[in-house]
Prior knowledge:
The complex is a heterodimer of chains A (about 400) and B (about 270). By secondary structure, chain A is α/β, with parallel strands linked by helices. Chain A has 16 helices and 14 strands. Chain B is α/β, with parallel strands linked by helices and about 270 residues long. Chain B has a single domain (about 5-265), classed as Aldolase class I (TIM Barrel). Chain B has twelve helices and nine strands. A nine-stranded parallel β-sheet of chain B has the order 5-4-3-2-1-9-8-7-6. In chain B, helix 8 (about 160-170) links the parallel strand 6 and strand 7 (about 175). In chain B, helix 4 runs parallel beside helix 6 (about 110-120). Chain B starts with a helix and ends in a 5-residue tail after the last helix. The mean pLDDT of chain B is about 95. Classes of the chains: A alpha/beta (about 400), B alpha/beta (about 270). The interface of A and B includes residues 31, 179 and 303 of A. Chain B: It is an enzyme of class 4 (lyase).
Amino acid sequence: MPTSEQTDFFGMPDERGHFGPYGGIFVAETLMEPLAELRQAYQTYMQDPQFLAELDADLANYVGRPSPIYLAERLSRELGGARIYLKREDLNHTGAHKVNNTIGQALLAKRMGKRRIIAETGAGQHGVATATVAARLGLECVVYMGEVDIARQSANVYRMKMLGAQVVSVESGSKTLKDALNEAMRDWVTNIDDTFYIIGTVAGPHPYPAMVRDFQAVIGREARQQIRQQAGRLPDALVACVGGGSNAIGLFHPFLGDRSVAIYGVEAAGEGLETGRHAAPLCAGSSGVLHGNRTYLMQDGNGQIIETHSISAGLDYPGVGPEHAWLKDSGRASYVAVTDEEALEAFHVLTRKEGIIPALESSHALAYSFRLARELGPEKIILVNLSGRGDKDMHTVAALDGIEL
Amino acid sequence: MSRIGARFQQLEQEGRSALIPFVTAGDPFPDMTVPLMHAMVAAGSSIIELGVPFSDPMADGPVIQRASERALAHGTSLRDVLGMVRRFRENDADTPVVLMGYLNPVEAMGYDTFAREAAEAGVDGVLTVDLPPEEADDLLAALRPQEIDPIFLLAPTSTEERIRRICAAASGFVYYVSVKGITGSSSLVISEVAARLVEIRRHTRLPVGIGFGIKDPETAQAVVQIGDAAIVGSALVKRIEALVDEPDQIPRAVAGLLQEMRRYMDLITPV
């Protein structure tokens, strides 16, 4: 395997969607041609100045980009270590980074003449971001969501319905994000003529991992400029949470060539890696094929996908984007895991010290950045992707405190 | 010649077409599968397609998803499925068996180990639903020395270029998915399928099986007037599901539908 020094990270994936041994296209024959059409459209429009101008205008005027970076001064001082900057994706319209991608894919859907949008969702953030752009463009929208997630993210379910989306409860398998993805794929294969499937993360068959990354890379492009302006130099480390890995790859990708910048992806250790009740395929899984690509998976010895556990619905996924699998193997990025308990603590710390309520997903990245800040010391700079805000998690956190809202 | 090739040749000489039932191995429990396979052969089946249960059957409708869940509740693994084929072979040396499933259990076992153990068990063909020929080189290289036929899907959306490529990689037969959708979803439209079959036959001399959407004897009869085999899955699995509480009745119920299909199919002269 080539080492990190020899690798052209910006040339990935290859024409057939491979990131080294990962990625690719593993779907039933019926989807092969629709995926080829999508690939073609995507390649065409990403070089079309008119399309790009429309995308940029939407990101500026509808999403509110650029999102700021913010030096968490009080937090950094009290931790007594490196200075922590937050990339404020929580300030985007709809409250998370997810909308960067749904805006892009919905514009693509419109160009391709599709009148119906489908999506899968875990925490509901991607579902809300999809329902939002569908409402704006006047497209029919169906969102698939696991029964378990519907129960723990009821506020987002209601938001999607208000936006005019139909939310379909998925009751097969583990009734969470992976099953919602299966169900969305089944819908797509049945309705390919008029339907565009907006995948919410950097997983799925090619071109999704590359396409979603390219739409999310606006995070890293902005952050790289902003940190140079504000801190006068590049950061020493990047930290982002990884479920499927879209906010992480969005931040990481523009920095891959900056060898002085260490990169950390933070998975959900749930109740602890040693308990087996977690959602950390990169830290504790093995290679396999699921949802159209080869990547690291949580699976048993017979190749069956096993149930994951995380306090945050958005990280509760047994796979991970193939580019992360490649970055791990190549050594360019390191992947670590943070437990439910550590994430919750970070959630409360940021809320109390900075007046920012983070999503439970982003709280995983925060928890690891606290640890890292103490290790690195005050001369260093850490840039954390605050991928979403915590309003959606009020019920979960309150319930843990024994309070019913 | 492979058992699959020999079976199609024999059918051609008899002037009959192939009936290929699909059931999920281990559904509703592992001990049912081998007796059920024998019952299906006795009912006039030509080739048995045995589903390997998978936790995330993305291309399957609710009926076969639930069959997978029932089988997995008993822990039915790919190795267990190979054991069932081995036991089936003790009393049936002729009926070809095709494994149909998803790639990940095969990956977990390792391609070479899988191919060797499958051949030893008496498997004749392998269809991995989520493995298009573009990604199949390594698995094909493992199956070839064991003389296991790789079966590939063709779909209503397949371009001429893809049909050519898939037929070049396949052996045994090719499987035409007659509807855009998942297993058990909707009924096929014979005129549309017929037009596609003409196109497919331009690129291959392999027998063409038609599956997805064959619910009753009438449809089975209609498809073998244009194709070489009728592949029936969800309609059988539904009968199994209806009898999970009276499993003794399952072999007879499944065989009953297959006999009717066989009878209807034998009324016409195949293509």
